[in-house]
Amino acid sequence: MTAGVREEPRETVRSRTPRRLPLPTLLAVLVGFAAVGYRLALLFADVPPTNSDEATMGLAALHIARGDGFPVWFYGQAYMGTLEAYLAAPLIALAGPSVLVLRLPTLALYALFLLLSWRLTRRLGGDRWYALLVVAVLALGADRVVKNQLIAGGGYPELNPAGAALALLTVGLCVTGAGARLPRLAAWGLIAGVLLWVDPLILPYVLTLGALLVAWRWRELAGRAGVVLAGALLLGTAPMLVDSLRHGRNPVAAVLAAGGTGASADWADRLYGGLVLGPPLAMGFCSPGRCATWQLWWAFAFPLLLLLAAFTAWHTLRRTWGGPRSVERVSAGVRLALLGGAAGVLAAYSVSNAAGRTPIESSRYLSCLAVAVPALLWPLWQAVRPLAEVESIKATGGRAAWARARVAGVGAVAVLAGVLGTGAAATVEVIRAAPAVHAEADRHRSLVDTLGALGVRHVRGGYWTCNRLTYATGENVLCAVVEDDLRPGFDRLPAYRREVAADPEAAWVALAGSPLAARLDARLGPEPGALDVVTVAGWRIYLPRR
User: Fold this and answer.
1) How confident is the model at residue 323 (pLDDT cuts 50, 70, 90)?
2) Which residues fall within 8 angstroms of residue 495, CB to CB, at 6 or more apart?
3) Which of 75, 265, 477, 546 is the most exposed place for a label (fewest CB within 10 A)?
4) Is the bond preceding 279 in cis, omega lying within 30 degrees of 0?
5) Residue 406, number of CB atoms within 10 A of its CB
6) What pLDDT is attached to residue 11?
7) Which range scores top for mean pLDDT: 176-190, 382-396, 520-534?
8) DSSP bridge partners of 544
9) Is the pLDDT of residue 252 over 70?
10) Which is it for strands 478-481 and 531-536: parallel, antiparallel or unpaired?
């Protein structure tokens, strides 16, 4: 040893050696980055296609960014909070209005959902390989799935990360010491309150996880902890409560009224749309706009797996009941709560008219089934694990036990392979459809450019044209909605109609070949008061003859 030089202990040197991530964790990180990167590439390709409902949220964000208004509800209705608009407003203030800017917060919410789901899987007792499997399943991006995750149309992108956060907080609240619980209770109440303002679709999870929390901590909740939870819940719902008191609105009645509008669907159609088409669409097993017969196998596997997972969790709860509150017992309780929430979401959707009338599009109401994936796939993973423990099983249970374990394990592997394979096939279909979606977006950009070149400031068009056009132009073009017979339609922002009506030179915009275009074509002609037409990229712009 050299004089004046102090040699460090071996333990200190060893502790400075950088730790490597375990292989399954590293793979999960890579899969997560690939999933986010895939969705970012879709956004640059204008996938999924935007619409006027998403543009309505964009207009709310634009108004917030400018300080022109701070809407509580999606314009034109008294339900569905505008959280997505507030998240996007700072970006729109910096970069201006665009679909990409509007969707960057939803992409961040998806990335957060992946992270929270990985963490939730680990907290529920899953090993790193199982957590990798959960991330891989949630990384797949079929048509309905990426629409739910990326379109900022109100209420869907934020549900899954918030639901996973509630489940994680519930685990923590049930296993931590008293000193660490008050901040978690405040966070639980705040997230639950915000969810109730944003979209009540997540309510079944709030109820089941809340019931578990009360069952576990009811003594504390009767005191200061209950006050903290209730106060945070009220804070989260404050936008909804304040607006209801100021304007006398009832958001619960508004939601129920919206769910019951239109012609009633018969029960056969509701159950087919909810139980047969719903689970495969919601879990990302179907191609864009349709669900092939071979992709419907999940409709039969899903309820069986739901029951099996619930039975497994209940069995664990009963086995540990009466003993100390172990992590295993808490994990089983949270898994059971997640499965109960998923069952509630599916049941509520299956009895609705939407499931029978518009099952393909309305399957978005089942988007939060993804929150329960760590609990849903649990029994499959438990059946797969023994395949790696051949000698141990033979030594303890003999060849018969090994034969039973092998049959169960091979069956579980087949189901998991079906989940990944079907989801991957549906993801490929999204990629194949991307060029057509991108071409449609290019045609709309040509329409916007042409209106600018013509100096048009006010137009009339169909519902699915108007707000999309207004947002794309940053309100440089204002649009009033008309029906195909030229009667006034549903304007989510009535002020636009008043401005358009005040302009005698307001134009009309319609898709080429649409019923509205056919009606307007009848008004073409050389006489005064007739219309001239300018055709651009599949759109027809009708200008008053001067």
Assistant:
1) low
2) none
3) 546
4) no
5) 15
6) 45
7) 520-534
8) 531
9) no
10) unpaired
Q: What is the mean pLDDT of residues 221-230?
A: 90
Q: Report yes or no: 203 and 196 within 8 Å, Cβ to Cβ.
A: yes
Mean pLDDT of 485-490: 94
Q: Beta-carbon neighbour count of residue 269 at 10 Å?
A: 15
Residue 207 CB burial class (10 angstroms; 0-12, 13-18, ≥19): middle
CA atoms within 13 A on the CB side of 499: 15
* The dihedral sign for the CA sequence 406, 407, 412, 417: positive
Place of tokens 């099952």: 359
Report pLDDT for 3: 43
- Asked if 332 contacts 316 with a C-beta cutoff of 8 angstroms, the reply is yes
Burial of residue 230, with CB atoms counted within 10 A of its CB: 0-12 exposed, 13-18 middle, 19 or more buried: middle
C-alpha to C-alpha distance for 334 and 168, rounded to whole angstroms: 9
% of the chain beyond a pLDDT of 70: 90
Question: Could you count the other beta carbons within 10 Å of the beta carbon of residue 29?
Answer: 16
C-alpha–C-alpha distance, residues 27 and 148, integer Å: 25
> What is the length of the chain?
546
- For 408-428, letters b (16+ CB in 10 Å) and e give bbeebeebbeebeebbebbbe
